[in-house]
């Protein structure tokens, strides 16, 4: 990156005066901070270990440390990375922890104390709040009755409120005793504020006379009207004091303690700060009062040895006591970085316009280059949230089919609590997607399913969990089957568990009855095992007995398998710390984690569409950004639901009267007075949150919303900007359902299967086929077919990876001699997609008919500039299919991916593929594979259908009968293929034999190969002329 004038000025600024770098989004602040560090070391001869470089996240600190170390190594200032082991490049909390450990026993904290995790903090506070409400904590006698009458309607909210308040108190560097003194002082101050406010209104000529009299009377009640604040202040003190006691008992500290005790350490031993020659502070707009005071103690007088980097426009943590005003009050010369190296001009114009009215003094960011000036900002407003989610899913599908990668695209939300509608619509199109954060993780269907398993282990009479498990991918009970089961229970007045035990199944089918009986037996055994083993052990056993993971693996449910793996990690972490915990306690812990929203790690996120909150995206950038759910009450978000608050400006705030009969008391008026101030702050911060979301985008930006909600949304404000002349904004319409769906099967199967399935299944020992450190061969049916045709051809294509046109390869294998030539292959592909689309829409009760399909067919063929005759041929085949019995049936699945595992002593085989269609009929499951060949050659496809049958047997055996059929679209003929067990076993042996040959590098040319139509004939020694062979042999020398 070339250094611009402002960056160079910031990097080389004198080290004897405070420096304030105002760095907008994408202006290279990390580059500047890194190079200022290097300038201090290289030019001004500072020692690297004497410079403190602080930021807010571990990730940001690691990135900066890596950059600095690499540059120091390149410049030969240090010899190896270990020379920087003692450097102070970290986030605030890590720095404070290290300082406390290096200077033990000066402040009253055990150096070995562990930092309490957020979920554990919630558990601890729940216990304390229960003690408080049960009057088991020591309280002043005059408050006992008041505490008894406290209106606690939502215990979980009360717990969350107390944690929030105590965190804010610690951010103000207040111990319990100091908090009490400060709050009493602020209480008196607030009385004065209220009295002055009432006095001004009582004497204002702009207020009606009768209202003035009312204000005059209320002045007399000011002293009485802060009784609620006094009560709540004492309640917080009692809980805060108990919280501190419990932390010490458990030898724990929280994040607030790290800052507080480091501050106390530096006050008691100020000479400690002398070792730090210079300070570099990142994201200064996010510092709170405690962090500001800490920096003051670490620095020399007047902050003369401090450089800060900040941007008030990106201050989005004021809700947790960050003080963006710290940037304003920090002394020193300002250097503005305004050249943006991330986003295109239209994105920057929109971001600036959003904040221009509220922050007129802020500098506008300027695009550093003139490329991509025609970028369009897209807006969409759906009739409801489902329409909005459909737009996003279809637009993402379009972007992916046009060449974007899933990792390039992010969906940003104000809160991911409502992310699952968007997640589900994206997954319906087969696009890999993940919701970041634990609330999203635990809302996944797969996690809800396995949580239902655990609830049934604990209580077999949990009806909702029964329905959830039976409808899961494990058993695939249809709505009809479930309704029959529920109806039978109502008639017999029995729960589902008793229906199974007593055998009162009513009209349920034989296969469904077997499933219920088998699962009930597993549950019963699981209950017995719980008497001897931990839940973790029993849960893994249940997964093994039910073949759940195996069945997910058959159909390449990579995301789901990965989610189970992460869930097991959560279980393992919990039970390693809580050995004797019950299932109820673990389930309660899950609810606590969901509320804490700590991040659950997901493997290979870069290959997925990510849905995350704007706050999670801070410091990141993405080529394409969707900012969704920009509607009233969602973005901007509504005010906090906490009834009690604390701030440095006002002390304790009670938003609602404790006694509902006295709502007219003046404390409500005071809270409204504060509320006006807080509401304005919140609205301004919400605009900054939108600004941060927009400035994450590099080249593509989509803002979406839906009808509903009260008031005007940010979306409406942006839409109005288009009307007032802001350029490069386009309002989109909902796209038609896509004909071509994005597929990235190679990525899913190769980069995920080996890393996730192998690691997970082998580690948990759920599938013995993958045990040991054997080589894993990943194959498909087409690969096996090519090897059977010619092993040398397989080598050229899959080992040497010589590029080849799939059209030529498919033509040579399946369409040679067809009257349509290569167009036959293309027509077959389009017909497959149209039939898949037809059955998908039919199953979803969406409009679809001959006209709809003919229009899709015409557009697809004309788009590829194929002849009109192909349209007529395709329409003829489609019309014939729509009149067939197959078209009238509803499908269970289309284009269903699968994976089969085969074990060998030396290696394991993972065979992958896709099944065109699966139907569920009365007494069996039917596999149907569409063929567009002219000739009906059932023997040619016999092995392919045998593999499909083996795959479904892995999933359903022994519960279901599986039949296989070929359907030849050109002749409208359905051909059944029957297999004996011996024949299927023979196919398995053939697959292992082929895999063994590949493993042993046996790639000789087949005498039966179609050399004349082989795309590799120019490379093959047996397929070239004698003159060419000379040239070929010469080429081999190189």
Provide the structure class.
Answer: alpha/beta
Roughly how many Å apart are the termini?
A: 39 Å
The multimeric state of the shown protein is single chain
By CATH reckoning, the class of the domain at 5-112 and 258-337 would read Alpha Beta
The CATH architecture of the domain at 5-112 and 258-337 can be named as: 3-Layer(aba) Sandwich
User: What is the CATH topology of the domain at 5-112 and 258-337?
Assistant: Rossmann fold
The rough form would be described as globular
Q: In the CATH hierarchy, what is the superfamily of the domain at 5-112 and 258-337?
A: P-loop containing nucleotide triphosphate hydrolases
Number of helices: 40
